[in-house]
Amino acid sequence: MKNHGKKFVAPIVITVLVILYYFVYFGILIHLTGGVGAVFLGIIPLILAGCMVYVCVERIKEIKGGEEDDISKY
To answer: pTM, whole model, 2 decimals?
Structure first.
């Protein structure tokens, strides 16, 4: 198996940035709505953050498996 260390950087960085964006968005919702409405409005960003982590883990598995180029499958 090749060393794919550099190829892990982009998916991880993008995942962290998007999740930070979601947490800032959630924090703004809490501040603006007083906390009560943020629970209902914040569910979607939290679900999207979970999906982002799942996609990142899947991408890392693909890179470890030697599938660096997803487009080659199509």
So the answer is: 0.73
| Tokens linked to 33 | 């709505």
Contact criterion met (CB below 8 Å) for 64 and 4? yes
How far is the C-alpha of 49 from the C-alpha of 3, rounded, in Å? 28
4 contacts: CB under 8 Å, gap ≥ 6 = 63, 64, 68
Alpha helices (H) along 1-74 = 9-33, 36-41, 43-64
pLDDT tens digits, 27-74: 887 788 776 766 777 788 888 889 999 999 998 888 888 766 666 665
